[in-house]
## 1
Amino acid sequence: MRICRRAEELTPFFGGEFVPTMGALHEGHLALVRRAKRERGITVVSIFVNPTQFGPGEDFEDYPRREEQDLRLLEKEEVDAVFLPRKEEVYPEDFATTVRVDRRLTGVLCGKYRPGHFDGVTTVVARLFGLVKPKRAYFGWKDAQQLIVVKKMVEDLALGIEIVPVETVREADGLALSSRNAYLDAEQRRRAAGIFRALSAGRGLAERGSCRAGDLLRRVREFLERDDLSPQYLELRTVKNLEEIRSDSVLEAAPDGEELLLATAVPLGKARLIDNLRFRAKIIRRTPAFEGERK
Ligand code: AMP
């Protein structure tokens, strides 16, 4: 396994499989690596805690950094190269570009509460794509909005990189693995499992037949309250373009329906935990005409 700290050392690894990360690796990251390895190409993993995606007062300084342990884990996975750049390698002094995807995708959900966050993400991902020149790149559904935004960027800029989504890896009690789970104490860790229970209850309601979006969201909130969790946001949107599903829309379970994203962010102690579930439903939007038909 080659450890590259300089961009020019990446040349022999162009055209391969790429897994960008911020390190403090766990089984979620390793699922991406294993999925990448299945393609049998050269696999490159980057570890870079990107300062531009953290807002003022966020956890950039405290973000867990475990370089030695990460390298041991990646060695075991037989990764070909790890890119571990210093900040100046990613952002040279005269760096002058920001890549921004439309606010309809980046100003909602997490973007509403973390202004500039996704500009930091798309800019660093575009820069890393340019340095690593991969054929395919792997992203987790855990960060669904990030995946959707990066896909849009690649499509709009015709970067010619295939974005491969990977399912969220969870603990036995349902909590999505995250480097930030390390911030939780034992009591918070126990309550954190309530997020998955709540989202599952919501999805369960939709999958059982027909329900109103507003009732589904109410049910999820009730579940969150049981664990004394209060979400920063809890929303139902389309996966395709993150369009919000109005609460008076009726959802009908349908395997060929629209793919929906039930997403939440829950502040818990020092952590801010995000999670989401996807399911398919036919959306019957209430329109004035529809109202008229019912009379
Ligand atoms: P991060 O190091 O948090 O920037 O994450 C790097 C990549 O790993 C992103 O594409 C994440 O979506 C993905 N990832 C993080 N946690 C999980 C998880 N629990 N399951 C699947 N993918 C994950």
## 2
Amino acid sequence: MNKPLAHTPPMGWNSWNTFSWNINAELIMTSADHMVSTGLRDAGYEYIVIDDCWSEKQRVNGRLVPDKNKFPDGIKPVAEYVHSKGLKFGMYSCAGTHTCAGYPGSFEHEFDDAETFAEWGVDYLKYDYCYKPSAADGANLYKRMGMALRNCGRDIVFSACNWGEDNVHHWIRESGAHSYRSTHDITDNWDSVREIALSQLDKESFTGNYCHNDMDMLVVGMYGGSNSDWIGSKIGGCTDAQYKTHFSLWAMMGSPLMIGCDIRCANQVTKDILLNKDLIAINQDPEARGAYRIKVEPQWFHEDEAFVLVKALQNGDLAIGLYNFSDAPRELTVQFWDMGIPAAAGVALSLYDCWEHKEIGLFKERFAATVPAGDCVV
Ligand code: GAL
């Protein structure tokens, strides 16, 4: 038997956030080169995923056909190139009749398309929800593609993307999906990051091995440089501290880590964030437990303004993140008894800072840190 897929959250790069429709074989192949030369591959980023807008507008003999201008030699050589770099290759389709950008979807073609993807050497399929006939049951459509992929003769990670509609967290695991998008599209600004994170806090029991809560691709390092300004992605960009907080949230909350910036020209700060091996290790912990939220002291902070996330790790460690979503620096205190550590037991925690990459000492009962606005301490 093959090793089960997506034991921990998938990691990789996806073309959509920065390039949307403006994709081609060369972009995908040079991005694969940069996954290797930047060290991202060796840090665990594995999948290179082509999102929407890769096909012709019409099927031929019932089959999907790659856009002749964008992929003149078809998809297979691109997949082979990606594989030759020690990476895996992903693509995109949709549960409806059309993709969100109006290309053919897989509705009623699920088994044919799974076969096509397997022939091309696809290892990952993102599966969207646009143009779903209103009478069709979404859960059933994801089961269909789940069945098709499991029987196509190739291991393909199934990344469901229905934006959190129809209470997807209650039925998606059974469909065979390895991750599910739980929110609407991220845009490259702090409001979007914050809103997505807050919407998924307290859903920590709906993520775990083999079926991870996907909070959407990372916007780390985009700095407002998106091709898709038609969906508002160009608005803003984040500060470096906000990108760091965004990455810390996605890592701790167990989201897949799919890079969305242009890695061919990522700056050093972006690389330092994406390559943070301590945060990656938290995200890739073998048990994939969700992170729970506890209140910080002082208690007058609104729980959405400042909070602590805690994730139990396999080796007995705890990942602890202090997050400041307010617009001023805050001194935040975490009480250890909130994490199941009775003060009377005299237990101390030996703390390590995952951004400074150093031990910060032994603490009893509580830990306090002053966290700048929009920043975090993990
Ligand atoms: C959206 C999806 C995005 C992207 C886009 C492509 O529905 O959430 O991540 O895939 O479609 O058109």
